[in-house]
Structures are given as structure tokens and as C-alpha cells.
Amino acid sequence: MAQTFVLKTLLDFASAHSLKGYPGDCAKLHGHNWKIEVQVQGQQLNDIGMVIDFKEIKRHTKEVIKELDHSFLNDHPYFQDHNPTAENIAVYLYREIQSRISDDRVTMHSITVWENDRNCVIYSE
Ligand SMILES: Nc1nc2c(c(=O)[nH]1)N=C([C@H](O)[C@H](O)COP(=O)(O)OP(=O)(O)OP(=O)(O)O)CN2
Ligand SMILES: [Zn+2]
After folding, report:
1. Residue 91 CB contacts under 8 Å (≥ 6 apart), including other chains
2. 120 in ligand 1 pocket by Cβ < 6 Å?
């Protein structure tokens, strides 16, 4: 039987940004409490019945978001060439977490970046 488990964990960080070229207030300096949903997938369980420990997903994700938390995103090297939109933040997080977490049993499924309670971007490759 083919089986797939998708695991989701939630984290958050706070940062400021300004959107270059935006025709409105979002071009001005402002901040968000970003909510991040990290989803990973696997088909095999380990000997204690887990795809991967949620604590491991969180550990890797915290390592990545530590660099962004309480920062001005426009100063970050990645966002020199990428406007710090929710879309580009999602790409950055997806690839950074993927490079830490993927192995022969676990792969990234998607990242969801919530800018506020109403708007989010869901990204997958
Ligand atoms: N596709 C995207 N659209 C927008 C992004 C983005 O990253 N991707 N970002 C912004 C701004 O960062 C802005 O801060 C959004 O916040 P807000 O104005 O509160 O957004 P709302 O649409 O929910 O607010 P309203 O008051 O309903 O206009 C904008 N767009
Ligand atoms: Zn914003």
C-alpha cells in the first residue's frame, strides 16, 4: 500500500521590510509578525513510528529564521536581489530548510508564509 505522511509545524518570527517598487504604503518601512507553516513528507516510518521528530523540524527551521527574526529583511543578503515579499520569503525558507532537512526518507512538501491573519503564500517545488 502506498502511503504518504505530511507533517506540519508552526513557527513565527518578527521582522520589518519595505517593498521596492510597490505602488502604495507597503513601499514604506513597516513590520509583520510572520507565521510560518513548514510541511515535510515521507513514506516510511522509523523504528519508533515517526517520519521525523517535530522537534527536529523545529530545530532546523529555528536555525533558518534566527537570521531573519527582529531584522530589517531588506538588509539580508538574499533580499538584495529579491524583493522581500511573502513569496520570496517563502522561496528562501523552503530552500534553506530543504538543504538542512532532506534525506532519503524526508523531503519538503511546502512552506506557508502568513503575513497577517488574512493573507498567506503557499510555496512548493
Ligand atoms: N502578493 C503579495 N501581495 C502583497 C504583499 C506580498 O508580500 N505579496 N505584501 C504586502 C505588504 O507587505 C503589506 O504589509 C500587506 O499588509 P496589509 O496592508 O495589512 O494587507 P491587507 O491586504 O490584509 O490589508 P488591507 O487593509 O485589507 O488592505 C501587500 N501585498
Ligand atoms: Zn509588509
Report:
1. 82, 123
2. no
Q: Which domain holds residue 69?
A: 5-123
Nearest residue to 68 (alpha-carbon basis) of 44, 86, 55, 53: 86
Ligand 1 atom index nearest CA of 88? 7
pLDDT tens column, 35-54 = 999 999 999 999 999 999 99
Q: What are phi and psi of 73, to 5 degrees?
A: -60, -30
Domains of the chain: total? 1
| Nearest-angstrom CA–CA distance, 38 and 99 | 14
Contact 31 CB / ligand 1 (< 6 Å):
no
Helix (H, G, I), strand (E, B) or coil at 72: strand
pLDDT, one tens digit per residue, over 87-101 is 999 999 999 999 999
The strand ranges marked E within 18-123 are 30-42, 71-72, 107-114, 120-123
CA distance 29 to 54: 34
- Residue 53's CATH number: 3.30.479.10
CB-facing half-sphere around the CA of 57: CA atoms within 13 A: 25
